[in-house]
Design goal:
The chain has 250 residues and is mostly beta strands. The chain has one domain (26-249). It has three helices and twelve strands; from the N terminus they run ααβββββββαβββββ. It has helices spanning 2-22, 27-30, 152-156, and strands spanning 41-53, 56-73, 79-88, 96-105, 109-114, 117-123, 131-133, 161-173, 176-191, 195-204, 208-220, 233-249. The radius of gyration is 23 Å and the shape is globular.
């Protein structure tokens, strides 16, 4: 009788251990709240877009809205969200649909597909210092690497690393402060005599993307007549800032 009771206790403990091992992960611990997704969600951004050519800049300012339109399941039975982007010159003007992209939020990652190109925007759990290949699903190769290369090390030289930075740190944008954010640094930032590469996205818990920066500029040597106070001559480039101004659910 005692052996039977002991066996029952052991089995009960084993089953409970299995349940703990395979139970759903804690959403807050995983960081799922940094990328909320529900049909009807929308976010509106002030956008400043600057194009450089031969050291002359051309600046455009618009407002951009990203709205979660519908959902569907793909061939792998993964739930996808269709996101519609619309633009307008400013507040009070009519929105005009600009483009569409698709987001899939899975237990281990968030992927975004636009123009038949898929990017890994976030990975879970969210931890400062964690890195991943943002374009792991793309076919972009490093210079000199053949498409049929069998060496995985060569193939992945052509991929771009993303890394988490400042998890849980407050971030201020457009006069609003978001208390719990995480920054995704894209690629390997640099700012030297050759040019600038500074790309990042900031996500706030319960809100989503609150700030996006894309800044890539190529410099060229110049003389005193071309450059003011020794500032580098911007041969060509693109600088874009997207700042969240409102969000909600329709």
């Amino acid at each position: 009788m005692r052996k039977a009771l002991l066996l029952l206790v052991v089995l009960t403990g084993f089953i409970a251990g299995c349940d703990d091992k395979y139970k759903d992960p804690d959403p807050q611990a995983m960081g799922y709240g940094y990328y909320p997704l529900e049909v009807g969600d929308y976010r509106i951004y002030n956008v400043t877009d600057i194009r450089f050519r031969f050291n002359v800049s051309d600046t455009t300012r618009v407002q951009l809205m990203e709205r979660v339109d519908t959902t569907f399941y793909d061939q792998t039975n993964t739930l996808n969200y269709k996101i519609v982007r619309s633009v307008r010159p400013g507040e009070g003007s009519l929105w005009v649909e600009d483009s569409v992209f698709v987001v899939a939020k899975q237990p281990t990652m968030v992927t975004l597909t636009k123009d038949n190109t898929k990017y890994v925007k976030l990975v879970f759990p969210v931890k400062s210092g964690a890195s991943w290949l943002g374009d792991a699903f793309n076919d972009r190769l490093a210079p000199g690497v053949k498409a049929d290369s069998s060496r995985r090390s060569e193939y992945y030289l052509g991929k771009e690393s993303y890394i988490y930075h400042n998890k849980g740190v407050p971030f201020q944008v457009n006069g609003d402060t978001y208390g719990n954010t995480v920054t995704v640094i894209q690629g390997a930032p640099y700012h030297d005599g050759i040019g600038i590469d500074d790309r990042k996205e900031v996500y706030a818990e319960g809100v989503g993307l609150v700030y996006r920066l894309f800044n890539r500029v190529v410099y060229t040597p110049c003389n005193e007549d071309q450059c003011d106070n020794g500032i580098n001559y911007k041969l060509q480039g693109h600088e874009r800032h997207e700042e969240l101004i409102s969000y909600g659910n329709e």
